[in-house]
Amino acid sequence: MTATPQHCLIVRSQLPRDPRAAGLLDDAHALGLARVTQLEIQELFFIEGDLCPADRQRLAAELLSDPIAQAAEWRSAANDGVIRFLGADRQSRTIETALRPGVTDPVAEQIVRCAHMLGLEAVQRAATGKRFIVYGKLREADLHLLAKRLLANDVIERYAIGPIEPSFPHPAEASGEVDIIPVRDLNDEQLLTVSRDRRTALDLAEMQAVQSYFRAIDRDPTDVEVEMIAQTWSEHCGHKTFKAEIVVSEQSAVFSDQSSVTSHLSPTTDDQPSAINNQRSAISSQPASTVDGILKTYLRAATEQINAPWVRSAFVDNAGIIDFDDEYEVSFKVETHNHPSAIEPFGGANTGVGGVIRDVLGVSAKPIAATDVLCFGPQDFDPKKLPEGVLHPRRIQSGVVAGVQDYGNKIGIPTVNGAILYDDGYTANPLVFCGCVGLAPKDSHPREPHPGDRVIVLGGRTGRDGLRGATFSSMTMDAQTGEVSGASVQIGDPITEKGLIEVTVRARDLKLYTAITDCGAGGLSSAVGEMSSSCGGEVDLKRVTLKYPGLAPWEIWLSEAQERMVLAVPESNVPQLQAICDTFDVQLTDIGVFAASGHIVVRYGDHVVLDLANEFLHHGIPRRSLEAVVSRQSSAFSSQWSVVSHYTDFNATLLALLASPNIASKSSVIRIYDHEVQGGTVVKPLTGVMNDGPSDGCVLKPIGTQGTRGIVLANGINPELGKRDAYAMAVNVIDEAIRNAVAVGADPDRIALLDNFCWGDPLRPETLGSLIEAARGCYDAAIAYGTPFISGKDSLNNEYLGSDGLRHAIPPTLLISAIGLIDDVNQAVTMDAKEAGHVVYLLKADSGMQIAEAAPAMYRALHRAMTSELVRACHDVSEGGLAVSAAEMCIGGRLGMSLTIEADDPTLALFGEGNGRLLVEVKPQHGPAFEAQFDPAVVKRIGMVTDGSRLNISSRTQALISLPLEELVTTWSRST
Amino acid sequence: MSKPQVLILHADGSNRDHEAAQAFEASGAAADIVHINQLRTKEKRWDAYQLLVLPGGFTYADALGSGKLWALDLNTYFNEEVHTFVESGKPVIGICNGFQALVKSGILPGQRSAVSAQRSASNNTATLTFNAEGHFECRWVVLKPQSQRCVWTCGLSDLIECPVAHGEGRFLLNDPDDLAVLQAQDQIALTYAQADGSAAHGAYPVNPNGSIGDIAGVCNPRGNVLGLMPHPEDHIAAYQHPRWTRGESGRLGLRLFENGVKYAREM
């Protein structure tokens, strides 16, 4: 098509050792490609333009490579595929990868811009790629396997054995094609066919509602209208399941035996059988009842009943908001990005972080902290047993972690709290929870667009990003034709989003806008639709700037392109906003106007392609009616969770627990996140003498705030319990989140909660039943602790249909994120043991996995002790029980402990898990004052911190555990 | 006495600008965060400032190498202004991404000439490249102030503790013999050190990135321009120390900023 010459520069490291290549080699071996003996990673830059040798020399030396650390050579006929200086030999082959057309390539854009800055105006277009030199005796099939399993992700990348052809970006123009979809004369079956064909996920009742609306206005809908209705009424945007009326029938089950040990050990070893067994001894049926909406009945109800005066916004805005001090308010939101992360881990996690940051920006707040809770399949999962089409958990983890790191670090928001969990159930369905905390002056968030205000889009250009992912990822794309098809998952662009933060915060302070929301799921249709729902509006899609040509109007309207915000701006303020945008290189596009019409109208140039009444669009969805079956096992189960087996070698058990992936150190991940940026991290994720003890929570002192007040972040998650009893899980994770927050110093009376439910298909009555049980647990626990919910999100249908026809569902997983306040950050407490001779107390208010009635008072007493500065260290007792908790305190402080516990049942006493348990270190002279804070029933002095280098735990009659500190440290640290 | 005015340069992706501003305010200066576009349009003027800061961040997303494209901004749009600022002897500090930009623009270590009339990336004598461990890393380090020539470290005897947070902080020289030149000219401003101040000798993680000579920061031959990878602006209060709950305190990064501001005030 073009005669312009294309050039390819190959760049490689000149340094003796490339650790990235070593890591990749490890991955190759872990994925079963043992014959690969060595890997080299090189970079490819494709440049289109009439360039003389001198120009190319300048481009290579001044822009595309670092001559001190790297070598660079232009590909030519002479060296094509076998570049001599790169040392390729007979045993080596090359695999090259390039991004698919339409996938954002910010580096390519910078190359063109910067080449022009250097005076190399002839550079027209650019693209990037990677080149891998693979050593070892490999067959062609091995190379393809290596490329597919490790080097290229088919969703966003192409690969070639040998030289690859790049895909260059194209200038943009839209297509304007609109289809009319006849629905008025269809019967029920035909309506469902339309729903299926358009992938609207609307059921018959919903399709009938659409039909009667268009019958009433006497025309058929456009594709733009059908797509917008489907989006607005989707589970994601409409939370149909959480709002549905549910008829619940009950089964109750009673379990035998007592108490609780969660096993993080492999149940396969003979001497360490699973410590859990639920034996149903009785099942009986109860009459049916009705739940009038899960959200309303359990979550909102708890918040309304607690009625905390410091809650400023719950379940209404993009994020929940609480008071910080007289001047500021704090917002918090946690989202999931599970499916995108399963198919493209880096991009999925990347845009998950970007999305939740925009939620916080959508309440006019400056993002000040990020949280990430990640659930993966086992890292040593046998590659041969992976379901077809599923990425290996190892690759998912490395991609997700890199995606979180890339976005959080680059945008300058500290990643300060999180967790990583492993379970077989997450192999095909990883969970990626991304959270963001924001800070804003009180009452600075405007929520009401006025008729006449302009509809302003800030940020990135619009492409096919995220549109009906399945369709686009299965489309065959051909680089040679240069046809652009787009990709379903995008790589985020944190620097563009950083620009949005700079502009939004300034525009807020100058009161330039009357409403703001983020472009997330549903793109402009959702953002503009939501903002105009109380008035009306009219936009012209032709004004939207595009990434590449050929987008149909419905695609522009629905695109989930990242890094965009929509603002309602009075016309007189637009020039001032434009000036701020110009300063920060943020693109501003005026696409329309808000109006008092009660309608949303979308034009494409002169053609009206959508005209819907707000009343229908936002209130016309028929309420769903669902059925659930509940196994009301909880009350019985939570107090009667059985230990079926007892360990005998407690040293071995403790070491096995410390080495188990769910408990072992996560420092290798934590350290690649920047948790210090913004300078407010008072209690860091890792703490103690060697900065490696696992903190219970994080304490932040936000930059720019006065006084000593801080924010506390913590979380609770327990899929192990979710598999057995959803109610008990909810109670347990709420207790754990609160307990973690209190352990670092949060005031238990100033803690708010966020709920994130990740479940399977809610149309299965048993699945919906366990969801209801979890929600009921949420209500009961929130009321008991006085902790309101301020925001939440549900991600349902986390199932994978394998090619074997089997459904792989996740364990029901509820993440509770706690946000609390601490009045004086200088009174925060860390978990590391501080000094030999100090006294160790066990606080224990539990009654198995039930709500511990004594816990709320115990947490308040602990907080009093902390504000009286009586506490030197505090650590929650959770996974692995008291022994693991004590071992972690020893590791944190590089000190020993000598503890004596009551141990009628040593397994239970050492490793038992339950609600309302903590270990506390107190100076001996403060012992009496400390004890005086508590009900004597919950506080027990169990030993001392020692400068001996051992952890000793004994019962009154026998030694149970005696291990050297060094062994605890190495065992716990080893797996990372 | 009026406060010294600090120009905190912001390019797309700068993100530790507010912490830098806070550190300078705490040191008695007045800080102004200015986007490079505001200097290009002359909305803000270089000569209104006594100190220049290139703060941390990920300008242009580290595309084509950290600091590289920001350096291109400096050399393309502000060559003369930066030259004038540096030659006038005013204190300049580049932290993390700012250090990377100063090195990639050829301003540091700058022993060939303080600022050549026509700098270009291909003439550079030093670079900051990928950490020896191959990944980004956030951890606290100990810094030993070395240079008496550098206006920022001159007279500092106490160690400094502060975090590093970078993936491309490994300081390398094109000609390894230049290390002796840097030493001879007292341009090695800060080195990574053990907690007791003894040398790291390249040992990870005390030297977190594999920098030659444990170099954490270098200055130009005149001593007024300092670049360093760690973030002293993230340790200006006791509660920021990673072990403050164990009673550890002091070794504030704030001292560096106080030193620079004092120098600017006395100029």
What's a quick, concise take on this entry?
Chain A is an alpha+beta fold. Helix content of chain A is 32%, strand content 26%.
Describe the protein's architecture and organization.
The complex is a heterodimer of chains A (976) and B (267). Chain A is α+β, with helices and mostly antiparallel strands and 976 residues long. Helix content of chain A is 32%, strand content 26%. Chain A has 30 helices and 39 strands. In chain A, a hairpin with a 2-residue loop joins β20 and β21 (607-613). Chain A is globular and about 85 Å long. In chain B, the strands form two sheets. In chain B, strands 2-1-3-4-11-10-9-6-7 form a nine-stranded mixed sheet, with helices on both faces. A two-stranded antiparallel sheet of chain B has the order 5-8. Helices cover 23% and strands 22% of the residues of chain B. Chain B has a single domain (5-266), classed as Rossmann fold. Chain B is of the alpha/beta class and 267 residues long. Chain B has helices spanning 17-26, 36-40, 68-77, 79-87, 97-104, 178-184, 254-266, and strands spanning 5-10, 30-35, 51-54, 92-95, 126-129, 137-145, 160-166, 170-173, 188-193, 215-219, 225-228. Classes of the chains: A alpha+beta (976), B alpha/beta (267). Chains A and B meet through α1, α2, α3, α13 and α15 of A and α1, α3, β5 and β6 of B.
